[in-house]
Specification:
Elements lengths: L5 H18 L6 E6 L5 E6 H28 L10 H4 L2 H36 L9 H27 L8
Length: about 170
């Protein structure tokens, strides 16, 4: 469904939920959940609310994105906007193109889950010190790594559909 094996994506989501749940036990009753650029906390929420929010964001968002794209691409009247759309969505190539789109987006969603779990881990670690302090270098490194991945992901995506083979003379 979301990758070559929907079971792998489901397993990733289960592991992420388990990771968030288990690591949240060490959080204080009031969690520093928002941080300034210098790493110091400027926003707080109750632990139960933080856990629900983090689960919804780290599990629910990728799941929602994956489900919407999966079902949207599967519709015969789906409005898929691609370079060289007429070629790639021609009836003889549509199934292969939709399959590629699903797998490619599943990869992005999987990396998104890992990134959001890492951000949660940084928040857990930030709450272990008083006053709570998020590691700015660790957060910036994570953001940079995710941004680089997103750039390469987009590049490979666009490269795949950029050039359609030349039309054969009829």
């Amino acid at each position: 469904m979301f990758t070559r094996s929907p079971l792998r994506f489901a397993l990733l989501l289960c592991c992420a939920a388990l990771f968030i749940g288990l690591t949240s036990y060490s959080l204080p009753d009031t969690v520093a959940s928002h941080f300034e650029a210098d790493g110091f906390a400027n926003g707080f929420m109750r632990r139960a609310m933080y856990i629900r929010f983090t689960l919804a964001f780290a599990i629910g968002l990728p799941l929602l994105l994956g489900a919407v794209s999966y079902f949207a691409f599967g519709a015969s009247n789906a409005r898929i906007n691609l370079p060289n759309r007429e070629y790639w969505l021609a009836p003889e190539r549509r199934d292969q193109t939709v399959s590629y789109l699903r797998v490619h987006l599943a990869r992005f969603n999987s990396v998104l889950v890992v990134f959001l779990c890492y951000v949660h881990w940084l928040v857990v670690r930030a709450n272990q010190v008083q006053p709570p302090h998020l590691s700015t270098p660790a957060m910036l490194t994570a953001l940079a790594a995710f941004a680089v991945y997103a750039i390469f992901w987009t590049r490979f995506f666009l490269r795949r559909f950029r050039n359609a083979p030349p039309a054969q003379p009829g």
